[in-house]
Amino acid sequence: MDLGIKGKRALVCASSKGLGRGCAEALAEAGVDLVMNARTAETLEETAAHIRETYGVQVTAVAADITTDEGREKVLAAAGHIDILVTNAGGPPPGQWIDWDRDDFMAAIDANMLAPIALMKALLPSMMEQGWGRVVNITSVSVKAPIPQLGLSNAARAGLTGYVAGTARQVAPHGVTINNLLPGIHATDRAVALDTGVVKAQGISMEDAQKQREATIPARRYGTPMEFGRTCAFMCSEHAGFMVGQNILLDGGATNTVM
Ligand code: NAP
């Protein structure tokens, strides 16, 4: 299917690896020029070079921490005009409800709620002015089904979800859509980090930890960054203009709900 977005320009945050990279590659596959971001310049440059060579699109790579004001200023200054925004950042660490103090909550809220909101505030006006724009926020399955040990993530992402629900309806009359894409378990470094937590907590092997988690997924496997990215690319496509303020769950059926 032609997604109808060839030649548009996307900012994909936190995209040198994992789900962000999947989104960047799928948009590049659709002919979209990219502004990519991550903190580590070396990995980011490697991924940017791979995408330029593979898909023949223009890629601007900006090494910066997207959760800070300075990082966002640097990225936005290099980005210029943007038609499509994909927000993403690393997820907060796991722990117990009693572990976290104000600083921990503020770090999680900065990274997973206020950073995407600041990027939307910066880029929505020009999208609305041109009468076309797409925003996809990478959030988490924890928005629909909270994960007990990820209390910081549950809290910060719930805040972003509430903000998007209202804002998406305010910008939709201008041809701009905002939606959230909710990953369940996907095969990325983040999944390895969470599996390592299970290995330590239960004293089992990595293979057994992964088998245990796969058994909780009706699809009996982890998702891949590329299938996640292609769903994101569709949500950014010409065809998804009637999708407004939705929370799209990609979890292989793991969350046992009707809606
Ligand atoms: P990942 O494989 O660890 O990749 C994270 C990417 O983000 C890397 O490119 C990393 O590069 C970049 N990054 C991290 N913090 C950043 C920052 N402050 N500024 C700029 N770039 C940053 O993670 P992932 O699995 O793709 O996860 C992406 C998001 O989805 C996370 O918020 C995660 O919590 C959420 N999620 C993932 C899963 C899953 O199963 N994978 C499930 C639910 C939710 P640098 O380190 O070089 O900056």
Under CATH at level 1, the class of the largest domain stands as: Alpha Beta
Tell me the fraction of residues in β-strands, as a range: 5-15%
What binds here, in terms of ligands, is: NADP nicotinamide-adenine-dinucleotide phosphate
The number of domains: 2
Largest sheet: 7 strands, parallel
Work out the helicity level. 40-55%
Order of strands in the sheet with most strands: 3-2-1-4-5-6-7
Evaluate the radius of gyration: 18 Å
Poorly predicted regions are none
Report, as a whole number of angstroms, the end-to-end distance. 27 Å
3D shape:
globular
CATH superfamily of the largest domain: NAD(P)-binding Rossmann-like Domain
For this structure, the CATH topology of the largest domain is: Rossmann fold
Q: If you average the pLDDT, what whole number results?
A: 97
Class by helix and strand content?
Answer: alpha/beta
